[in-house]
Here is the input.
Amino acid sequence: FAFLLPVLLLGCAVWIGALSMINVQHRTIEVGIWRSLGYESGWIFGLFLSRALLLGLVGGLVGYGLGTWAALQWGPMIFKITGKNIAPLYGLLAWSCLLAPLFAGLASLLPAVYAVHRDPAELLREN
Here is the structure.
């Protein structure tokens, strides 16, 4: 488990980063238009980062809900002796609402930086 968890976290970070980069590439025309209309790089950066944070929050909530449901549903069948003591851990809900958006935001940081550091004329010319 000590080996598998970091590998899984790295794989998830790469996956989230790749999906974020695909989102950035699909929105090159929009980014070019926003930049040519005078929107600052910080605003565009915040837009991409807030999307990642929101998706991370939704992912954390759904993950907590599904994990708690699975533990309550199948836990007593798997752990015969201690299964009746299984209960939702609401402290984990707070951690998942904090750490999942942070993780998604960090994984999407490079694509967001890539989106704002391109020349708007070049972005519009490409498409």
Summary: The helical segments are 4-26, 28-36, 41-78, 90-107, 109-116, 120-126. The two ends are 46 Å apart (CA to CA). The chain has a mean pLDDT of 91. Residues 41-78 form the longest helix (38 residues).
